[in-house]
Structure formats: C-alpha cells, structure tokens
Amino acid sequence: MKTQFVILTIALVLVQMFSESEAEFHSKVWGDLVKSLLGKRELRSFDQFDDLYE
Questions:
Q1: How do residues 33-54 score in pLDDT, each as one tens digit?
Q2: Most exposed residue of 9, 21, 49, 54, measured as fewest CB within 10 angstroms of its CB?
Q3: Which residues form the signal peptide (predicted)?
C-alpha cells in the first residue's frame, strides 16, 4: 500500500511538472501566432492600430 501511494505521488508530481511546461510552451506559441497574424508586434496601443489605416 505504501509503495502504491509513493508511486502515485511521484506520478502526480511528474504530470504536474509536464503540464505546466506544456502550458507555458503552448501559450508562447499561441501568443506569437496571434501577434504575427494580426501584425501588431510594434504597436503599443490600439490608437496606433487605427493610425495605420488612416
């Protein structure tokens, strides 16, 4: 019983570590993708976005 508990605890810790690193990776990739699609990398506010089309 103790062995199963230790294995379960280690597995939960490893899954938590993996899911956090995966989330950071996907959020960075998704954020860069959205920025590149919208083309707003150098904009600091939406006012500058409006100025592009004037």
A1: 666 666 655 555 655 555 555 5
A2: 54
A3: 1-23
